[in-house]
Amino acid sequence: MSDDKFIPVTFLHPRDSQQYEAEITPKTTGQMALDGLVKAGFIEPAGAKGAYALQHQRRKCTLPLSASLAGEGVEAADTIAVILTSSAAGA
Length: 91
Known about the structure:
Layout: E1 7-12, E2 19-24, H1 30-39, E3 50-56, E4 61-63, E5 78-86
Parallel strand pairs: 1-5
Antiparallel strand pairs: 1-2, 3-4, 3-5
């Protein structure tokens, strides 16, 4: 896959039924995607009491934030759920 190819994906909001259609590149990491979703106003910054995770809906797995989404198997038309997790879990 060339670096100038865009991959259309859908992100699901962590609290309601909103969807955000986006085009990522093969180099887009999970953290870059989250940063873009915050910048676009789709999600708010997680803040001190929580963190976001990304779940690949087709493969039913959590995507690492530091890895390329395409490298983790995200393909055109895939759906990625944004999950709000508690940083205090287990404390």
